[in-house]
């Protein structure tokens, strides 16, 4: 496998970064998870825009243009002969000393991994996921904005561990006020009386690229959609629930904390959304 690392494609065995890189020492860095479908990179520009916003938010100056990063992403996919896959684009603060000071890190590092995608097992797309609510709260936006896609994922990892201890593949994380924020690696949507609702970034949701796509799909389908604060009560009483993410795509949820949602089977609005999503990913995107 070829990895793009700081301007060159290298073998994965040679793709190494310093132990003094602050991305490793402190999680000081940002990333994107991107999908390649049939030789097209889905919503690449949107991912690169979010990367730029994340960089700006942590005062990290990207020394590459959007076009240069875009070219590097496509080049990495081509070098690995991929047509379908998952792309991990990472920018670290770079090499510094053992202190926190980001200004001592002279140059950010960039690396890009393009690999096969490991999705949820196929049966969950037809039967639906059973998820739980975990005790670990989503980080307060005043402490670290969840809109920043940073390398510091320990908050989500703690929640993921709790989900697994409870036998679930994904978990709802509440914010510090008890409102639904998102899942450990996915955004959450509910359908109630024909309307799609999802928590806002202010409630602790990452502004997911797939989440944005759901807003556009809902418009196309003529289904009302809005950001709304949600409690577990709203999820229990929803007609349908589904999750979205670059890796997960759009996946239905049929149980929360052992309670059946709606009819206990993936619902009709989810079905229409998924159909539109699958069509879009195959027909739109940046050719590699
Ligand atoms: N929330 C979190 C915490 C995430 O890590 C992700 C990405 N895996 C998402 C939501 C979904 O975002 P996107 O649709 O951009 O992949």
For the termini, the CA-CA separation is 17 Å
Ligands: 4'-deoxy-4'-aminopyridoxal-5'-phosphate
Tell me the major beta sheet. 9 strands, mixed
Helix/strand order? EEHEEHHEEHEHEEEEHEHEEEHE
Strand content: 25-35%
CATH 2nd-level architecture of the largest domain:
Alpha-Beta Barrel
Number of separate domains: 2
**Mean pLDDT over the full residue set:** 97
Approximate helicity band: 25-40%
- DSSP strand tally: 16
Q: For the record, what CATH class of the largest domain applies? A: Alpha Beta
Any idea of the CATH topology of the largest domain?
Answer: D-amino Acid Aminotransferase, Chain A, domain 2
Number of helices: 8
> Radius of gyration, Cα only, in angstroms?
19 Å
Provide the structure class.
alpha+beta
Low-confidence stretches: none
Tell me the overall shape. globular
CATH homologous superfamily caption of the largest domain: D-amino Acid Aminotransferase, subunit A, domain 2
Structural commentary:
This protein is of the alpha+beta class and 288 residues long. The protein folds into two domains: 2-115, D-amino Acid Aminotransferase, Chain A, domain 1; 124-283, D-amino Acid Aminotransferase, subunit A, domain 2 (D-amino Acid Aminotransferase, Chain A, domain 2), CATH 3.20.10. 29% of the residues lie in helices and 27% in strands. It is built from eight helices and 16 strands. The chain has helices at residues 22-26, 44-57, 66-79, 123-127, 154-165, 209-221, 232-236, 268-283; strands spanning 2-5, 8-11, 29-37, 40-41, 85-92, 109-115, 129-133, 171-174, 180-183, 187-192, 195-198, 225-227, 240-245, 249-256, 259-260, 286-287. Strands 7, 8, 9, 10, 11, 12, 13, 14 and 15 form a nine-stranded mixed beta sheet that branches. Helix 6 links the parallel strand 11 (195-198) and strand 12 (225-227). Helix 6 packs across helix 8 (268-283). It starts with a strand and ends with a strand. 42% of the residues are buried. The mean pLDDT is 97. Bound molecules: 4'-deoxy-4'-aminopyridoxal-5'-phosphate.
């Amino acid at each position: 496998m070829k990895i793009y690392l700081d301007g060159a494609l290298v073998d994965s065995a040679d793709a190494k970064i310093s132990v003094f890189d602050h991305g490793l020492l402190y999680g000081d860095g940002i990333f994107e998870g991107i999908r390649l479908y049939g030789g097209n990179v889905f919503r690449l520009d949107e991912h690169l825009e979010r990367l730029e916003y994340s960089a700006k938010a942590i005062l990290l100056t990207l020394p590459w243009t959007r076009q240069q990063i875009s070219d590097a992403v496509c080049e990495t996919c081509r070098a690995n002969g991929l047509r379908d896959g998952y792309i991990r684009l990472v920018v670290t603060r770079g090499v510094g000393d053992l202190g926190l000071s980001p200004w001592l890190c002279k140059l950010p590092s960039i690396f890009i991994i393009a690999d096969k995608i490991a999705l949820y097992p196929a049966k969950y797309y037809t039967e639906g996921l059973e998820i739980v609510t975990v005790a670990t709260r989503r980080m307060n936006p005043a402490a670290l904005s969840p809109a920043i896609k940073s390398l510091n994922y320990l908050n989500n990892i703690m929640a993921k561990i709790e989900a697994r201890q409870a036998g679930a593949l994904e978990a709802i994380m509440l914010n510090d006020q008890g409102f639904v924020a998102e899942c450990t690696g996915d955004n959450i949507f509910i359908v109630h009386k024909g309307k799609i609702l999802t928590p806002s970034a202010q409630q602790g949701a990452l502004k997911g690229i797939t989440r944005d796509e759901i807003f556009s799909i809902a418009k196309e389908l003529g289904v009302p959609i809005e950001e709304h604060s949600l409690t577990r009560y709203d999820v229990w009483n929803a007609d349908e629930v589904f999750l979205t993410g670059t890796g997960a795509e759009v996946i239905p949820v049929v149980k929360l904390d052992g309670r059946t949602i709606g009819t206990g089977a993936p619902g009709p609005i989810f079905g229409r959304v998924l159909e539109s999503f699958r069509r879009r990913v195959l027909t739109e995107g940046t050719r590699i």
